[in-house]
Each structure stands twice: as structure tokens, then as C-alpha cells.
Amino acid sequence: MPAEPGRLRTLTIALLSIVLGLTAVGVIMVQSASQVVAISAGRHPLDGLLKQGAYAVLGIGLMFAISRVPTVALRRLSWLLLVVGFTLQALVYTPLGYEAGGNRNWLRLGPISMQPAEFMKVVLLVWVSAVLANKQRLLDRWVHVVVPILPVVAASMFVNVLGGDLGTLMVLAALVFGCLYFSRVRGRVLAGVAAIALLGIGAMTIIKPNRVVRILHFFEVDCLTAAEHAYAGCWQTLNGFWALANGGVLGVGVGNSTAKWHWLPEAQNDFVFAVVGEELGFVGAMAVIFAFVALAAVLIGLMTCCDSPFARSIIGGVTVWIAVQMMINISVVLGFVPVLGVPLPFISAGGTSLLSLLTATGVVLACVREAAAAPETADGSLSAARSATAGASPDTAAPSGG
Fold first, then answer.
1. What residues are paired with 239 via a beta bridge?
2. 129, 396 in Cβ contact below 8 A?
3. How far apart, in Å, are the Cα atoms of 255 and each of 28, 237, 281, 341?
4. What does the similarity note say (predicted)?
5. CA-to-CA distance for 210 and 200, rounded, in angstroms?
6. CB-CB contact of 367 with 314 (8 Å)
7. Which terminal residue of the chain, N or C, has fewer Cβ atoms less than 10 Å from its own Cβ?
8. Of all helices (H) and strands (E), which one includes residue 222?
9. What is the pLDDT of residues 52-104, one digit of tens each?
10. Separation in Å, CA 384 to CA 4, 71, 304, 376
């Protein structure tokens, strides 16, 4: 936390307040949405609270621990983190991996179950930002934007496609695009990268027949009028609509949802926003959306207070990551896009997702901490903290490749 009163301290307090508030709402809603399923499966009635609460405590501790790590250390570790991330993704296709919800993106290591793709979001955030910071003075040339970022990101996305996880693929693409955009990469280079990404996503989409069927079903069937599809492809969407409608303006109260009684599939995961709308009503649902909008505004405000290229890329990537993931999730619940299996940030059940988001917040806080400390040692030149993250010179950046 910046010690001196001012804009940076105010924004940091706002960031922590919103993140901790959304995490607390998530723990409550996961417990409410999963209680019936837990009891019917013979688990403890407070299973959702205990699990999600434990991940929240662990993630908050991790967030504050990482906020104390110098950003220069994070940049030095970025390549090692990239190797670890790819190794975990590859392990999904060994006997340690397993399929859930039609996607093979889960890994079981003893008693621990995790999604390497969620960990990879943080890895790519740090690694891409480190590469862009090292090449800051060379980013007007497209080759230094594309290499080595595009091949590495494409390889990670391809692993997700093999597992059938299109939602994570889209979030990863948006995250990297956010890093590039806020690193002030030229518009024509961004347009080229975006075109390549869209072509890649389109190609990777059509290689999975079940995904193509789901998309075609979305465009060809109106779930509100096609009664013959009510017990098939429209079941989850319709029950999400009914849950939101049942909530009205003020909701039926926390714990009183009827959709979670085995009517709404994945009520505590991808469709937790429907339970939020039913139990907290239109007011509560809009409050959650407003919290995400405020979080994006706070992150952008913090970005203006940080002058290092690494910090701008980190904060910009996190902003786009959270915003796009939130919009995809809520759009799915509202029926605007096909079901993609994307969790609502900080709120949906899932330890790996929550840990990755809180870890990314910790990296943002590390950038903010150094931005706050920099003026205290300024003597007319760059401070030690600022110079460590200001980016390499052209002579050293070009051969390093990040």
C-alpha cells in the first residue's frame, strides 16, 4: 500500500476493496449454489464454503506475498515460468490428466486438482510483458512484436484447443492483445496480430465437431420458442433465463434459489451469475456488473500512475483479461453467445481460476508498489526500482528476444 496520501493510494485501496469484495461475494454464492448438490452427493453441507473459502484465503495470501516481489525478479523468472506452464499443460495429456465437462484441461496431482490453462494466463501475462518491456524501443517494427510472442502464444492456445476449451482460448487471446495494446504497439501491427488471432481461433474452432454443432445450434434455434429443444440443447440456457426472471428486482434472498435444485447445470460454476440474479435480483446483478466496471476503471487509473513499460503491459493485460472474461460469462448466461464454459472472475467456483486472478492482482500490486516507491529515491534520474523495469536498450533487447 502506498504510504503517502494521494491518487495512487486511493486507487490501490479501491482495487483491494473491489477484489476482496468480489471474492467474498463469490464464496457466499458458491456456497449457496452448490449446497444442494453437495448434500445430494453425500458431502458436507458447507462444502462450497469450505473449499472456495480455503482457496480465497490461500489466494489472498499469495496476492500479498507476490506484491512484495520486485518486478525485475518477475521478469527474470518469466522464461522459467513459461517452461513450467507448458509442462503442466502437456501433463494434461498423460494419465495425470482427465476430462470434465467435455474439455480435457484438468490435471490431478495427488489430492490436488487444477487447470493448467488458468495458471498459463498468469504465466503469459508476465512473460509477454517482460518481452515487450525488453523490446520497448523496437516495437515499431512488426517482427519484434511477432517474434517470439506469436509462436509461443499460438503453441499455448493450440494445447487448449486440443483439450476442447474454446473459452479459455478466447480469454488468452484477449489478454495478450491487451498487453500489446497498452504497450503502445502500432495500430497496423495490432490489426495484423488481431487478424491472425481471429483466423487461428476460427480454424481451431472448426476442428472440433461438437463445438461446431453447439455454435450452429445457437444460431439456428430460438430457445424461447423451440419447445422441442427444451430438454436438449436449450436446457441450461432456459433454466438460466428462468432463474434470472424469478429473481425480479430484489431477488428471492441468499440461499433461496430454486434453480440450484438440480435444474440449472453448473449453477456454481459457469452459470453462477444466474443464481446471483435469482437470489439478489436485478439490483444485486447490476451491482456485480458495476463492481467489474469500477475495477476496470481503477486498473486503468493505476496504469496512468505507472511509467514503466512492464507495469503498463501487466495492468493493461489484467484489465482486458478480467473485462473480457466477465463479458463472455454474463453474455452466455443472458443467451447472447453460445455456452463456452468461461467462469465469472472471482465469483465462480474453481480454485485454480481464483488463485490465478488473485496472483495476477498481486503482480499489479507489485508494479504499483514500485511506482509509489520510485519518487522517494528520485534525484533527477530514474530511481533504482523504475530503471529496473524501464526496459532494455536496443542493443541488449534485440538479441535477447525477451
1. none
2. no
3. 9, 21, 13, 24
4. Belongs to the SEDS family. FtsW subfamily.
5. 18
6. yes
7. N
8. none
9. 999 999 999 999 999 999 999 999 999 999 999 999 998 998 888 888 766 77
10. 19, 12, 20, 11
